[in-house]
Specification:
alpha+beta, Beta Polymerase, domain 2, cca-adding enzyme, domain 2, eight-stranded mixed beta sheet, 12 strands, 10% strand
């Protein structure tokens, strides 16, 4: 046993020595930042010109770097490829935020990178990637991309629709090509583990210092390539509290209808990124500002300025509640957010059905839910597990006024979500006769008296009836009088 412990201790010392030497004498990539004289950090350089920001200036602490992402980069370097931390992780570290994940960019193709790691797999057709798994953490590895008009594009690797939208983006290039293919300048920053500098080819560093969102290249052309970039501009402006640069913002109003052509399944993921990452209220302001909210939730957008229903208040309260839960480290469910934001479109449909048909209230709710969700899934696909929850939360709004069935209602697995929506409705100005307070007291154990329950003094006055004796039936057959 002691020999095993000594052996493990020895391996630990060797590992610590290895990683220490890697930091002190890191491997060199094909092009080091010392080969170019660094310009002033705030100076705007021509697109594609290399700028190196040394560690003494950017001051990203090394302990903030993800160990698994660094292992991936070092493995790529050891195999003879270039490798850098890139994109949102570098941007967030410079902005003083904790990155949600770490991505890696490399000169290795996906087919070359995948065999280098034990738990890696190729994903994607439109945009091939390698996912390297460390437990529950996934490091995304992407190959340097190039423009579609480059010599590397044979037609098979990169394709665009007539509208300009990218259908396939697997044209590979070098790091300079890759930087100019990224969407915004603040996302085109590369962390070089060789000397811990940051490489910038698109003026991302001065834009970040100026708190500015700037698209790389011609804004109209880049939005046509991928309309989701307009949504990303709004999301980054809200998350980082940055301003969208004038030429970047100018085409959005005109080109926003292109968002409607994005696949609904992809749009569902984008909605979660926009509204469920802790900055939902600020993101909503940006979406409304650029008239893009209607391509995400058309029913809610149509009623946002309603004088009859408190749609705007409920949507903002639901997003504020989501932001608060995320800041507290709590989980959030997309079904609840959709149920809250689409509640008043549901109510409007139910009222229209009441005028045209004689359906019972619960059946009206089910039919209205079908219509509202049918409209919504044309914009954003909603997986069945979430659409079922949405219906259950809505149905609870119909059942919660039934105080005489309180215990039965509380056994419903969606009770908490239904109760929370009830409170948000009241908070938004809907008069429910104190129903939310009643349910709050009931859950605390006060158990308010039901309307059908008699008062205590009435029960005392009731005369107790003696228990009725049950007649005992004889098992023998009844005999006639003449026997």
């Amino acid at each position: 046993m002691e020999s095993i412990l000594l052996l493990l201790f020895g391996f630990g010392l060797l590992g610590a020595f290895y990683w220490t030497t890697r930091v002190k004498n890191p491997p060199t990539s094909t092009e080091t930042s010392s080969s170019v004289e660094p310009a002033q950090e705030t100076e705007i350089l021509p697109l594609g010109q290399r700028r190196a920001i040394p560690e003494s200036i950017h001051q990203i602490p090394r302990h903030a770097l993800d160990d698994n992402a660094m292992r991936v980069v070092y493995r790529l370097l050891d195999a003879g490829y270039e490798g850098y931390l890139v994109g949102g992780c570098v941007r967030d570290l410079l902005a003083g935020k904790n990155p949600k994940d770490f991505d890696v960019a490399t000169s290795a193709t996906p087919e070359q990178a995948e065999p280098l790691f034990n738990r890696a797999r190729l994903i994607g057709r439109r945009f091939k990637l390698v996912h390297v798994r460390f437990g529950r953490e996934v490091i995304e590895v992407a190959t340097f991309r190039a423009a579609h008009d480059s010599e590397q594009n044979s037609g098979e690797h990169g394709r665009q629709a007539a509208s300009g939208m990218i259908l396939r983006d697997n044209v590979y290039g070098n790091i300079e090509d890759d930087a100019l293919r990224r969407d915004f300048s603040i996302n085109a920053l590369y962390y070089n583990v060789s000397d811990h500098s940051i490489l910038d080819f698109a003026n991302g560093y001065p834009d970040l210092l100026a708190k500015r969102i700037r698209i790389i290249g011609d804004a109209s052309e880049r939005y046509r390539e991928d309309p989701v970039r307009m949504l990303r501009a709004a999301r980054f402006a809200a998350k980082l509290d940055f301003e969208i640069e004038e030429s970047t913002a100018a085409p959005i109003h005109q080109l926003a209808p292109l968002i409607g052509k994005v696949a609904p399944a992809r749009m569902f993921d984008e909605v979660l990124k926009l509204l469920q990452t802790g900055h939902g209220v600020a993101t909503l302001r940006q979406l409304v500002r650029f008239d893009m909210f209607k391509y995400l939730l058309p029913g809610a957008d149509r009623m946002l300025n309603s004088e009859i229903y408190a749609v705007e208040a409920l949507v903002n309260n639901a997003l504020r509640n989501t932001d608060r839960r995320l800041s507290q480290g709590k989980n959030v469910n997309p079904a609840f957010l959709f149920a809250a934001m689409l509640w008043y479109p549901l109510v409007e449909r139910m009222e229209k059905l009441a005028k045209r048909s004689e359906l019972p209230p619960l059946q009206r709710l089910h039919e209205a839910a079908n219509q509202v969700l049918a409209e919504q899934i044309k914009a954003t696909a909603i997986p069945r597990r979430f659409s079922t929850m949405i219906r259950e939360i809505w149905e609870l709004q119909h059942r919660l006024p039934r105080k005489d069935r309180a215990d039965q209602i509380m056994e419903n697995p969606r009770f908490r979500a239904g109760y929370d929506l009830l409170l948000l409705r009241e908070e938004s100005g809907e008069d429910l006769g104190g129903l939310g307070a009643w349910w709050t007291d009931y859950q605390r154990g006060a158990k308010p008296r039901m309307h059908s329950e008699p008062r205590a003094e009435e029960r005392q006055d009731e005369r107790k009836r003696p228990p009725r004796r049950r007649r005992r039936r004889s098992s023998a057959p009844r005999q006639g009088s003449d026997s």
